[in-house]
Write a structure and sequence with these properties.
The complex is a heterodimer of chains A (195) and B (257).
Chain A lengths: L1 H16 L12 E4 L4 E3 H6 L3 E6 L5 H9 L2 H9 L4 E7 L10 H10 L6 E3 L4 H6 L3 E2 L2 E4 L5 E5 L15 H10 L14 E2 L3
Parallel strand pairs in A: 3-4, 4-5
Antiparallel strand pairs in A: 1-2, 1-5, 3-7, 6-9, 7-8
Chain B lengths: L1 H21 L5 E10 L3 E10 L4 E3 L11 E5 L5 E2 L9 E5 L3 E7 L1 E9 L7 E12 L3 E12 L7 H11 L10 E4 L3 E5 L5 E6 L9 H4 L1 E3 L2 E5 L10 E8 L5 E8 L3
Antiparallel strand pairs in B: 1-2, 2-8, 3-7, 4-9, 5-8, 6-7, 9-10, 11-12, 12-15, 13-14, 13-16, 16-17
The chains are: A alpha+beta (195), B mainly beta (257).
Chain lengths: 195, 257
Amino acid sequence: MKSLLTLLFTLTATLAVAAVSPGETAPDFHLTDTDGQKHHLQSYLDDGKIVVLEWFNPDCPYVKKHHEANHTMKDLAAQYAGHDVVWMAINSGAEGKQGAGLERNRKAVEEYAIAYPVLLDMNGKVGKRYGATNTPHMFVIGTDGKIAYAGAIDSDNDARELGETNYVAEALAALTSGAKVEKTETKAYGCSVKY
Amino acid sequence: MTTMRVLFYAWFLAAVLVATVSAEPEPVTVSAEIAAADRDSLVLLWTFDLADRWHLYGPHRNDTGQPPSVRFDLPDGWRAGPLEGWPVPERHVVADVILDHIYERRLRLRQTVHHLAGASPRQVAAELRWLVCADLCVPGDTVLTLDLPGPVSAGGAARLANHREATPGPLPAAAATARATADGVVITAPGALRLEFVPDARGPDMVDAIADAVRDGDELHLRLERDSDAAGPLSGLLIIHHPDDRKTHGTITVPWP
C-alpha cells in the first residue's frame, strides 16, 4: 500500500512539473479566447499549421516591452500570418492575480491592438504541461506537432532593450523554408507566470 | 479657543497618519558607502533595502528573475570589479513549476573599484538596475552619483567585515563528498538532517531542481540533463542543516559527466 501511495505521489509530482523540451510532442489543449472562441491545438496541426504560443500577462513589464514600447509580437505574427503560421497568446494567471481574468485580457487586446487570439488558462493546466515559467515564454510548434523552439523571444533579458537576435523569428524563418531550426532552446526571461 | 486648537491638532495628526499609512513604500531603496580604501582601490558596499513582501533575485539558477546589476561610467584607467558577496538565498517555489532564489528585506553586496593611484576625488555615475517582485514584478533603476575616491564611512569597515564573514566560501572538504553517477551527482554530508543545493547559473541543467535540490537526510541525488547545452561541472551552494539546529554552508563543485 505504501509503495502504491509513493508511486502515486511520484506520478502526481512528475505530472505537476513536467515541461516539454524541443523535439517532444506539444501537449494538446482546448482553450477559449477572450472573444469566447474555442481553440484546439491539434486542429491547427491537422491543417498543416505552424503554431506559436506566447505566454502572456498584459501587466508584466516584460510583456509591455514587446507589446507597448515595441511591437515585437504583433509585427512578427503579422509577418507570418500568410505563411500558415497560427500565433496564440495564453494567459495562465489565476483569478485575482496580476493581469489575469477575462475582463483584463479583453481590455489588453484592445490596448495593445492584438490581432491574434488571447486564450485563458486560469487553472494553469496548459501552462504547467508546457512548463511555462515566464511571461513572455515562447513555444514554436512545427507541423509535425513537435516543439521546434522553446524559450525567450529575443536575446536581451532587460525590461527595456530589445535583443539583437529574435529567436522566434529565426525559428519561423527556418520552419517556413524547410530548414532546420538551429537554436531550439533558450532561457526564457520575464515575470513569473502568475499561477 | 483651546478646544479649537486641540481639534485642529487632532485633525492635523489624523491627516498625517492617514498620509503615512496610505503611502506605498518604494519596493527598493539603494544606498552606497565606501567601506574600505587604499591608494589605488576602494570597496563599495551596496545596500538594497526592500519593502515588506518584495524580493530581489540572486545570481543563481532561476526560472524567472535576474540579479541586480551595476554599470559604472568610469574615468580612463579606472575599473570596477563584479558584484560580490551574494549571501545565502531563500528558495522560492511557485505552483510547483517555478523555482527562484531570492532575497527579502535587505541585500548587501560589495564591489571593488580600482582607480589610478592617488587619484583626486571626482563624481562618478553608477547606474543600477534590478527586478523586484511581490505579487507582481517591477523592473527598477536609478543612477547614483558617488564622490570617488573618498573616506571610509563611519562603521563601513565593520559592515564590510560582517559582510565578508557572511559570504559563503568553499565548503570544507570534510563537510561533504560528491560523486558523479550515471544520471547525475550524489552529494553526501555525513550526519546532516537536511540538505539544500542552490545551483549556479552556469552548468548542466537539472532534471528537476524543485524536487531534487532539497531533501531530508544526509544524501542529495541531483539528476542532470545529459544532453544539456551547458557542459562542465555542476557548481553551487550546499546548505547543511544539522541535528542541533545549526546551519552551515559552502560552495561545492562536482565534475560532470
